[in-house]
Amino acid sequence: HNGTGEHTGSPLHAVGKLFHLLPALEAIGNRLCRHPRLASTIFGFSVLSWLCLFSRNFAYARGLGMSVAFSYFLLIWPLVVIVGLLPISISGIGIRELVLIAGLTRLGITKEQAVLLSLLEILLFLLLPVTVGLVVYYKQSNLEKVENLFKDPKA
């Protein structure tokens, strides 16, 4: 409890913390308005990162044998991302696949290929990095434990 009767780990507490960030976000926005060149640079990097994401997923699609124009992919993948953010399912799983099925079957792509593309993206974008991170974390922890065994206790 935080003294107000609500748990500090509750969703309501988390939302309250987010509202405390609003003045800082407003200050950042005001600074960016005074420095349009910086704002343009940040916007450019943002667009570039999204293009990299779309290009990566386009490469996955081509690797799965799908013949989809990149321009069409630029239209459909933002919808997949936006729908995936809706709080309807965990990480948008199921909802994203429906959007891909609806968008890609019009081009002759099978439902199975569309689902496979989405699952491949989830696997390579989310699960693989998490797995690698956990392995590195635990190897590092174990390495430190082994090193501590050989340290001179008098030092």
Question: What does the model show?
Answer:
- There is one protein chain.
- The chain has 155 residues and is mainly alpha-helical.
- The chain is 75% helix and 0% strand.
- It has 6 helices and no strands.
- It is extended and about 70 Å long.
- The model has no long low-confidence stretch (mean pLDDT 82).
Describe the structure concisely for a colleague:
The protein is mainly α. 75% of the residues lie in helices and 0% in strands.
Order of secondary-structure elements: HHHHHH
What level of helicity do the residues show? Answer: over 70%
- This entry's quaternary arrangement is single chain
Please give the alpha-carbon distance between the first and last residues.
43 Å
Can you tell me the overall shape?
extended
Low-confidence spans: pLDDT under 50, at least 5 residues? Answer: none
Which band does the percent of strand residues land in?
under 5%
Class computed from helices, strands and strand pairing: mainly alpha
- What is the alpha-carbon Rg in Å? 23 Å
List keywords for this structure.
mainly alpha, 155 residues, 75% helix, 0% strand
Strand-helix topology:
Layout: H1 11-20, H2 22-34, H3 36-63, H4 70-85, H5 95-104, H6 111-150
Helix pairs in contact: 3-4, 4-5, 5-6
